[in-house]
Amino acid sequence: MLSNSVKYKMNNKVSRSTSNISNTSKPGNSLMQNYGSTTVIYIVSFLAIGIAIIYLYKFYKSFQLASASTNANLFPDCPDYWDSIGKGVCRNVNFLGSCAQTPGSNTVDFSGTLFTNVNTGNYAKCKWSQGCNMSWSGIDRVC
């Protein structure tokens, strides 16, 4: 038979070894042990700031497009230095821009549905003016 002191020492060793195993295998501590709490906080903060910046940029662009379409009467009917020869029809009398070199392109009809759409008309005019290297007061800031 074993003495009481030997039994006590054996039980103590067994309990210490099981407590060491249970401390290292706790779920949920692996992320904090690998990276540290400040690193995790930095990563989460940068992700939140990045998402906020993307959301604000999209909100700004939609606001800019909406304000341009609601204030359509604030923009001139024709590009800068062009003459208006009818409702929505403009003539390039000074042969400005890169589209002036194409024969027959000095008169443009902006009264079509592409250019008069409430939501995208000014955007289409902006893209057209950029494609022809033309300035158009107010319109050229839409896109």
3D structure, described in words:
By secondary structure, the protein is mainly alpha-helical. It has a domain at 73-141. The protein is 53% helix and 7% strand. It has helices at residues 4-24, 30-35, 37-70, 113-116, 121-131, and strands at 83-86, 89-91, 107-109. The protein has a three-stranded antiparallel sheet, with no helix packed on it. The model has no long low-confidence stretch (mean pLDDT 79).
Keywords:
elongated, 5 helices, mainly alpha, 3 strands
What order do the helices and strands come in, and which of them pair?
Layout: H1 4-24, H2 30-35, H3 37-70, E1 83-86, E2 89-91, E3 107-109, H4 113-116, H5 121-131
Antiparallel strand pairs: 1-2, 2-3
Strand content: 5-15%
Ranges with pLDDT <50 over ≥5 residues? none
H and E order: HHHEEEHH
The profile of the biggest β sheet is:
3 strands, antiparallel
Please give the number of β-strands.
Answer: 3
Quick take:
The protein has 143 residues and is mainly α. The protein has helices at residues 4-24, 30-35, 37-70, 113-116, 121-131, and strands at residues 83-86, 89-91, 107-109. A 3-stranded antiparallel beta sheet has the order 1-2-3, with no helix packed on it.
